[in-house]
Structures are given as C-alpha cells and as structure tokens.
C-alpha cells in the first residue's frame, strides 16, 4: 500500500500521522472515537482511544470513573462486588453487605462458599455437626434446639425407635403407654385408622378409636342402649349388673332424675320413692 493510498477508512483523510486499526481497517483518531467509542456509565462521556476502557457485564467506564458507589475508592485492578447494580469495594461490601456467620460471627467474604439454613448463614467450615464436628455440607441433617446434627450422630445420641415399625423417629412422634410411635404408625388396634389427630381410648395397653372401643368393650346403657365410655369424665351409674348414663338414670314413671337419690326397682325398671310406693318393688 502506497502512502497515497493509506487513508482513513471513514473520512478518507491521509493517515500519515497517528491512526487506529479496527478490523484491519485504518481510521483517523477523530473518526474512530466518534464511531466506535463506548460511553462511560458514570460520566456519560465517550471513552476515547487514548483512554483505558474498563468493561463489566456489558457496561463501560473510564478508568478514573470506575469507583466504589459508596466510598468512591477506585476499583481499577482491585477486587469488588456488585449489589443492586452498583459496584462496591470489597471493604465496604464486607462490612455493610456481607452475611455474618451464625457460628463464628465473622463476615462471609464475597466469593466464599456459604451455607444457608433456616434463614441463617455459615462459613462452609463452620456448618458442622454438633456432635462429631464434621462439616455437614449438603448432607441430610436433623436440627433440634441444641444444634444441628448429621443423621448418624442424631440417631446415636437422641433418636427414639417407633414401637410399631422399629424405625427411628426423627421428628414429631407420639408417646403412648411410655412408648414412642411415629404419628403415621399410631393406629387403632381394631380398624387401623390413624389416631394422631383423633380422640381414642385404651384397652390392655392398645389404642382404639371411639367407634371400635364402643363396639368391642363399652357397656350399654340400660335405658338408651348406647355405649357408656366414661370418656372426658362422663359420669355413669352402676347397679347390680346394669349401667346407665347419668342423664338416663331417671324414674320410669315420672322421669325425675334419680342420680344421688334413693330409688326402688321392679323387674328391670327403676322408680323414685313416690312412684314406686304403689309398685311391688325390689328395694
């Protein structure tokens, strides 16, 4: 290429002096800056060819404009962190924005691996089993009031074993007759219905739903023939081989309550003294 032919690709001016190559094409400095310069995010001025262009995530800054958004310290050739689309120096980010380790209370530095659990953060090396002190990482864990435990340590130290399935109870559970049960294993002895949210009765150290207990074991009221369970402190009356709900223990003739009162019987009927005085009674 002769000197006469060495011209600016855009304005065709002679490039005997300073020029810039772009995609193997020569441009005078003025044309290059006007056509190709990026604009600084901070000052909004073009970043010309004689200035250093700092780029981060598709945005550009002059070297002198690339500063911490809070303390204005230069970030050129220094580590920094981004928060809410702002660049922050590592010192400010560590002091004001970084999470603090729940265990050691020290800052978790940007770029460090951190563990999150129940809204708190740990250094990876601080998130350890309370018993064996080994890092838990992403392995299964069991958390109780005293701390976090890996599953083997928890089972060794604390776990109860279900009386029904013999497997470890890791949470929840029910105590019945001094024995632990999984909620899903605590079933009616009769119909096998889950009882964890149900009212139930006990017989020979076995739980029964009310329907099964009433059907299998409850005495029947001599008046209404419905089961007498005594559930929730319900009162009932026994006389010889018969039982009554307290609200059913009434005179056969006038229906007055006989609870706490003297009464007379005739065959299988009961009477107050007034109504039974003319009847050939047993008492």
From TrEMBL:
One of the record's GO molecular function terms: transcription coactivator activity
Main location: nucleus
Top-level taxon: Eukaryota
Xref: Pfam families: LIM (PF00412), LIM_FHL2-3_N (PF25076)
Subcellular location: Nucleus
Keywords attached to this entry: LIM domain, Metal-binding, Nucleus, Repeat, Zinc, Zinc-finger
Protein name: Four and a half LIM domains 5
Organism in which the protein naturally occurs: Balaenoptera musculus
